[in-house]
Amino acid sequence: MDNLKQEIIIRKKKITNPIALGFVNAFLMHREINRCYYLRVPEDKLDVHLVENEKVQSDSPRKNIIHQTDVTRDYINGILTGELKSNRTEEYTDLLNPKKLNKQELITKFDESTL
Questions:
Q1: I need a surface site. Which of 21, 24, 46, 71 has the fewest CB within 10 A?
Q2: Where are the domains of the chain?
Q3: Distance in angstroms (rounded) separating the CA atoms of residues 78 and 80
Q4: Helix 2-12 to helix 18-40 angle, to the nearest 10 degrees?
């Protein structure tokens, strides 16, 4: 995790727009809360839906962490390139089969999405 934090610091130095830098700082701070949550979800509960009935089905923790990883990649790429592009799943083929990923692999992808 220390290497990851060092790499984030290096990447943040490349952000010259003060508004974008403010966004990144706030985003990463709030993101840490989500990371702590995912660390506490037991592996066998990653696919549990808290709401599941004929009208509504909530996302599972696994789907949530995949979504957050995907969106974070979009945000960071947008900040670094100056152009925000979304729904670029063709570039994120590693996220297309999330059930193949165990909890640690999901957390690692979540962490690495800021790089």
A1: 71
A2: 2-45+54-112
A3: 5
A4: 160
Residue 17: C-alpha distances to residues 24, 35, 85, 110 (Å) = 11, 26, 18, 24
Round to whole Å and give the CA distance between 69 and 86: 12
Cβ-count burial 89-104 (b if 16+ within 10 Å, e if not): eeeeeebeebeebebe
Looking up tokens 């506490």, which residue turns up?
Answer: 40
Tens-of-pLDDT digits for all 115 residues of the chain? 566 666 666 677 777 788 888 888 888 888 889 999 999 999 999 998 888 777 777 889 999 999 899 888 888 888 877 777 765 555 678 888 888 999 999 999 998 887 6
Residues in the chain, overall count:
115
- Tokens 């840490």 correspond to what residue? 32
